[in-house]
Amino acid sequence: MAGPLSSGPLTGAGPAAPVVAPGAPSRLLAQNVSAWFGSNKVLERISLDMEPGKVTALIGPSGCGKSTFLRILNRMHELVPGAAMSGSVALDGVDVYGPGLPVTETRLHIGMVFQKPNPFPSMTIAQNVLSGLRLSGKKARNTDVLVQECLERAGLWRETRNRLNEPGAAISGGQQQRLCIARALAVRPRVLLMDEPCSALDPISTGVIEETIRALCHELTIVIVTHNMQEAQRVSDNCALFLVDGEGLPARIVEAGPTEQVFGDPRDPRTADYVHGRFG
After folding, report:
1. Where are the domains of the chain?
2. Ramachandran quadrant class, 169 (left: phi over 0; alpha: psi -120 to 50; beta: rest)
3. Quick check: helix, strand or coil at residue 70?
4. Is the terminal CB of the chain with fewer CB neighbours within 10 Å at N or C?
């Protein structure tokens, strides 16, 4: 098994910036986050503490802003024309929207895996793993060791160790998703965001991805969007339920807490109705 993932201290934030020990998961804290697409407000004052070394699941019906919130966490929301946000997102106490942490560095510390696997089809499996590293201008002392480590972390090494020079698009959908996870891990993120990573996969591939998530959360902070309530119960430590109170209104978090409490003893009756399938 490869050694623990490492990460250096945040840069550019001055002498008061926190220093996180190599391999230590990071805390991601959103406070009073609101979001707009043009004049349409889609999120209303979202506050959520995503604890280090744990999996936080964002649940709720389609169209209630979960993916928008996820993209705000690593500054992808601002890539949409007309998009805006207010509030703050802090990584270990450093505001990712502040001047101390450039956007490119933010996305290195806070990685993203999308709903649809998106390996680079013209690159080999090994080249895909290293692509984020090369695009960011970072270098590895030994790329062969890094490729093996990241594929092991993503639960893909045994299946691909004799296929590293084959195209990334030549493997199955579930394997491609794990390849995307390996690619994200190569730049040593502190947080990994996952937007419905299993929604397009078969049950066996889903099980492998879920095992990978649970294995990774000891060294990373993971935030996952899922519509599958059983998956949320299986993989997450904490849950946050996003709901819209009426047509045209922005989404809010109506309940957040330990997964066992959210599913077993929710405070809000709407939470019980949603997690037990009575709406949504």
Report:
1. 24-92+190-208+218-280, 117-189
2. alpha
3. helix
4. N
Q: CATH code for 24-92+190-208+218-280? A: 3.40.50.300
Residue 276: band (very low, low, confident or very high) from pLDDT cuts 50, 70, 90: confident
Burial tier of 81 (Cβ tally within 10 Å: 0-12, 13-18, 19+): exposed
Q: Which long-range contacts (CB under 8 A, 24 or more apart) does 35-41 make?
A: 35/65, 35/68, 35/69, 35/72, 35/77, 35/83, 35/84, 35/85, 35/86, 35/250, 36/82, 36/83, 36/84, 36/85, 37/80, 37/82, 37/83, 38/82, 41/250
pLDDT digit string, tens, across residues 75-124:
999 899 999 999 999 999 999 998 877 888 888 899 999 988 889 999 99
